[in-house]
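---------- Forwarded message ----------

FYI, see the Histidinol-phosphate aminotransferase record below. Original note from H. follows.
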Amino acid sequence: MIPDTVMFSIDTFIRPHLLSLKPYSSARDEFEGEASVYLDANENNLGSLAGGTDYNRYPDPYQKEIKQKLSKLKGVRPEQIFIGNGSDEAIDLLIRLVCAPGQDEVLLLPPTYGMYEVSANIHNVGIQRVPLDERFQPVFDKIAEKQTEKTKILFLCSPNNPTGNILEPETVEKLIREFKGLVVVDEAYIDFTETPSWSTRLDEFPNLVVLQTLSKAWGMAGLRLGMAFASPEIISYLNKIKPPYNINAVTQELVSAALDKTAQLHDMLQVIVQERERLVQVFAELPLIQKVYPSDANFVLVQVPDANELYAYLLERGVVVRNRTTQPGCFNCLRITIGTPKENDHLLESLQVYSEQKSVV
């Protein structure tokens, strides 16, 4: 059961052998200044066959330039930021940090992002599940009933994947306040909504970890850069157990430049949100679509009479969507990403043709 009040110290949750772990000390850890000759890291001083600038040198292991820019953009301190190879790395490290294999558990609220379960399984960590309700919202009492002393992490996805909705802030706050363990709020799609990020409240909640990514709104899925925001204590432990050079030099270079383009980000977000509203409106008028779920993300979940059949039909017309019919609460549902206006036109045309064919039959 979740207690009425929680006094949280990350040190009491860390796997004991990690408390005294001495991390690998890289050459860039031991010397961070400027020199004319670097002979400390066994790099190839003749240069790089990949070209570019300094690609023969190891990258900054702590991505300081990016963290400075993110600090201003997100309103958090640099020491509250962990940068990973996608947010999937942060998920993996958090489980590794506090969950003993074959002993501890994580708590998931399906339908939700699949990597929480995959990472738990990789580390032989148990999984408890409390399905979201019919509105795809968490049920506090049922979650409270599931927690035991073995439950170390609660994963919340908001906006949720694959449903697209924001989890009700009142329930999320109650869970953060009263859950005895880490509460991880995954905000991969937060840029597509006006709802404030939980990262603005890190100083209130020492057990809170907020995940975000540059893969969605920023359009950098191929560069693989995700973020975890948390207390400096939690971040220091993540830095302690991560690989020394987990973000490559090319990604750091391109991401740093992209973070200066907030005006272009705003323009892209505006187009995506407008297209989302257009699709939702048309979907609601198509007899083929039985239900359109509210979305604060860059996709829309819809329910249709036969998801498998419609998925196959769209494939024939060159349109790939995500069939989520096997997910809890998502029977006969398709998850449709917001494309370009031209791509969305092709999708709508295909749906209209399919709908007409079914009505004739």
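H. also flagged this: The longest strand covers residues 151-157.
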